[in-house]
Hints:
231 residues, alpha+beta, three-stranded antiparallel beta sheet, 10 strands
Amino acid sequence: MRTKSMIVGAIVWLVLAGLVMLSGCGRTTASKTSTTSSASPGASASASSTQQTGTARPLGSSSTTQAQAPVAPEKNPPGDIPDTQAFVVYKSAEGKFQIKVPEGWSQAKGSSRVEFSDKLNGVAVNWAPSGSAPSVSQAKSTEVPELSRTEAAFKLVSVEQVTLPGGPAVLIRYQKNSEPNSVTGKQYRLDVLRYEFFKNGEQANLILLSPVGADNVDPWRIVSESFKWQS
């Protein structure tokens, strides 16, 4: 009888121990599930915040540009190009054009674009095949909506047809926010002149950027009037 009692006692002890272990596992699983659940909203909020602020996204992202409000123009923007600025001729075999650009500016080049910059000023040209010459009506119906979607805090100023030594062009004037400074995060309000040229199935867009309030009329005249297609 004593042996049977010991066996029964052992069985009861094993059953109780198993129940305790199962209870502990259940609490651990619940705790892990609760931790995962509580972390998800924070991660989602962080992702949403990144999409809304757009500061970490490259220019051109729709969520980046649409979320931004125009920044206030600087009273004394660091953007006037000096009257003594020298210009040099830049020729592009790929784009089939030449243009005068400020000497000494930084240069960046891609397969279908070239950019020159100094402080907040910039000169850029991009090119691509096109089936027809740009027009004011086409710019208003196609180019302006696209710029509104891709340029930060876009504001249209005007669209007009102009004639330059390099040929007829459509000129789109607008304002936008600059990309955030990589160190301070500060942005500036920019004036943009976008000249669209066309010849023999090729379109080239000349883009001139400077901070709102900068007096760059003469330098930009030199650059825009120097654009020339190469035969």
